[in-house]
Structures are given as structure tokens and as C-alpha cells.
Design a protein that fits this description.
Shape of chain B: flat
Largest sheet of chain B: none
Structural class of chain A: mainly alpha
Number of helices of chain A: 4
Helix content of chain A: over 70%
Order of helices and strands of chain A: HHHH
Oligomer: heterodimer
Radius of gyration of chain A: 20 Å
Helix content of chain B: 55-70%
Distance between the termini of chain B: 48 Å
Largest sheet of chain A: none
CATH topology of the domain at 30-101 in chain A: F1FO ATP Synthase
CATH superfamily of the domain at 30-101 in chain A: F1F0 ATP synthase subunit C
Shape of chain A: elongated
């Protein structure tokens, strides 16, 4: 656990201090950072979204397996819940796309 | 939006370099597609009217019965009953009658627009953000109109929260959440349609005949669900703005 924290901190520090290192050569690290930001944003967003949708699906399957008569009642709310969770991931997609267009 | 794919609008001359409309060509198609969608919906309305006139000439119980087998009209009645069903869960009968035209218009328009994406080479008008902003502004005006026309003092007091000494902070927070509602509606719909179409274009570039089938099935599902979500959320916002007098505020 400590090793993971250390590795993560080191990687973050590397990423954040990259522009200074590149500026020494006269290159701009700015556009690269935009692309990196877009990619990382999508990755983290999909991580959280997938976990959330997995939890919703797990709750649905458990309730239906305990009480099969609840399946027609839970059908609608299941899809509504999934769409809400998915929409949060899609907000990040819009931002990532805007960032990629600004490259 | 068309990244690597083809669309029928490329066949119209002068669209590619923007000299047809004068601005970014990838967005000028949506006006043509929206026209098709409106023509489609108008066609359905005309057919429905003809069916209604024909039904009025029958006598007895035959007057109120629909067809035995699935046809366009019966499918339209199915969707209409569905919209009325979920509206009835949120609003009372008087409000269902009053807002049914708005909610069903939003539902059918978004459904038809989204299903345009499945036709090969067409773009859904809803992947362009301005289409969805228009609908979200209408929904915003609708639920504010309901709240402000029936009980303006109560509506604003509801925004201030339960306790008077937290009112300034809570008012700002509630106002922000009020404006976030149409924003989230648009971005949800735009993101879903745009992302879906992009994934479709990129994946079918990878593996030509296997992925498009599965992705088109997914697109059917997502289109219907997103149309339902938009209209359901508008109904929920209207239901929240209707003054309820038995509130423990």
C-alpha cells in the first residue's frame, strides 16, 4: 500500500513538473498537457462510472433474485438509474472533446 | 462529428468547404436533418388525424378500439399511452392534460432525431448541442412558468430553504441547481448521441461487419432511453415546481 502511494505521488510529480523540464529545451509542454489532461480525465471518469453502474446492476440482480416478482417493477427505474450514472461520465466526455479540439 | 465516416450530406455540392452555409460545414447538416425529422413527425400527425376521422365514423364499441395488429398508428398509440403513463406518476390529472402536448412533443422529437442515427449515412440532429439547448430552454421555461404562475411567493420561498438564517447561502445554491438542470439535460443528450456516433464510426473503421450490428442495437436502446429520460426529467421538474400545500416547511 505504501509503495503504491509512493509510486502514484512520484508519477504525479513527474507529470506536473514536465513543462519546466521541456521549457529548458525551448519546447512548449503546454499542448501535450492538454492532451494528457483529456486522456486522464476520460480514464478517471470511466473508472468511477463503471463502478457506479456495476453497483446499480448488482443491486438490481440481487433484488430480482430474491424476489422475482419485482422484476417488472424494477425494470424502468433500473434503466433510469443507469442513464443518470452514465450521464456523469458523458459530461467528462464533452470536456475532454472540447480540450482535444483546443489542441 | 463525421471524423472518418461518410454521410449523405457530403453529396450536396459545396457543403465540404463551407461555401454552402458560410460556417463550419460539419454543423450545417443538422438543419437539413431536422427538417426531415419534422416532416416525418408531421406525416405521423396527419396519419393520426385521418385515422381519428375514420374511427369517428364507426359506431358502437368499434369507435374506441384500435387495430388488432401492429401498424404505424398502433405503434403511435403505444408510445402515446406510454408517455401518458409516466406523466401520470408525477402529475395530477389536470396537469397531465395541460402538459401532455409539450412532453409528448419532446419525447417524439428526440426519439425521431435519435433514430436518424441508425439510418446509414445520416447524422442525428441531437448530436449538435444547439438542438438540445433549444429543447432544454423550453423545458426550463416550462417548469419556471408553472412555479411562478401558480404561487410565485411560495416558489421563491421554497428556494430559500427551511431556515431563514441560512437563506442567502441556500438561495445561491438552489439557484445554481436550478440553472444546472437544463444544462445537464443538454449535455446528457448531446454526449450520448455524439459519443455513440463517434464510437460507431471509429469501431466500424476497425472491424467492418461485426461491430456495426452490435453498436446499432446499442444505439437503438440508447436513443429510446435518452428520449425517455429527457421527457421524464422535464415532467419531474414540472412536478417539483407545482405548489404542494401539505409540505412541512
Amino acid at each position: 500500500m505504501q509503495k503504491w502511494i509512493l509510486t502514484f505521488t512520484a508519477m504525479t510529480a513527474m507529470v506536473l513538473f514536465c513543462p519546466e523540464a521541456l521549457a529548458a529545451d525551448g519546447e512548449s509542454g503546454g499542448t501535450g498537457m492538454i492532451g494528457l489532461g483529456a486522456g486522464l480525465a476520460m480514464g478517471f471518469a470511466v473508472l468511477g462510472g463503471a463502478l457506479g453502474q456495476g453497483m446499480a446492476a448488482r443491486a438490481m440482480y440481487e433484488s430480482v433474485s430474491r424476489n422475482p416478482g419485482a422484476a417488472p417493477l424494477l425494470n424502468g427505474p433500473f434503466y433510469v438509474g443507469m442513464a443518470f450514472i452514465e450521464s456523469l461520465v458523458l459530461f467528462t466526455l464533452v470536456i475532454a472533446y472540447t480540450l482535444t479540439q483546443a489542441l | 462529428m463525421i471524423a472518418a465516416g461518410f454521410s449523405w450530406f457530403h453529396l450536396i455540392p459545396q457543403v465540404d468547404d463551407g461555401s454552402l452555409v458560410g460556417f463550419d460545414p460539419s454543423h450545417s447538416y443538422v438543419y437539413v436533418v431536422t427538417g426531415f425529422v419534422c416532416a416525418m413527425i408531421l406525416g405521423f400527425c396527419v396519419l393520426g388525424r385521418i385515422a381519428l376521422e375514420r374511427a369517428k365514423r364507426r359506431d358502437g364499441l368499434e369507435r374506441y378500439m384500435t387495430g388488432n395488429s401492429m401498424s404505424f398508428l398502433v405503434f403511435g398509440e403505444l408510445l402515446t399511452g406510454f408517455v401518458k403513463g409516466f406523466m401520470g406518476d408525477m402529475l395530477d390529472k389536470e396537469d397531465v392534460r395541460r402538459f401532455f402536448p409539450l412532453i409528448s412533443a419532446i419525447f417524439f422529437y428526440i426519439l425521431c432525431c435519435n433514430l436518424c442515427a441508425i439510418v446509414p449515412g445520416m447524422l442525428p440532429p441531437t448530436d449538435y448541442i444547439n438542438t438540445n439547448v433549444g429543447m432544454a430552454v423550453i423545458s426550463f421555461l416550462a417548469f419556471n412558468y408553472v412555479g411562478l404562475s401558480r404561487d410565485p411567493v411560495g416558489y421563491v420561498k421554497h428556494l430559500m430553504g427551511p431556515v431563514i438564517w441560512m437563506a442567502p447561502l441556500l438561495f445561491v445554491i438552489e439557484l445554481i441547481s436550478l440553472f444546472v438542470r437544463p444544462a445537464s439535460l443538454t449535455i446528457r443528450l448531446t454526449g450520448n448521441m455524439f459519443g455513440d456516433h463517434q464510437v460507431f464510426v471509429i469501431m466500424s473503421g476497425m472491424l467492418d461487419y461485426v461491430f456495426p450490428v452490435a453498436l446499432m442495437l446499442l444505439a437503438c436502446m440508447v436513443s429510446t432511453i435518452q428520449a425517455f429520460i429527457f421527457s421524464l426529467l422535464t415532467t419531474i421538474y414540472i412536478g417539483l415546481s407545482v405548489p404542494h400545500h401539505d409540505h412541512a416547511h
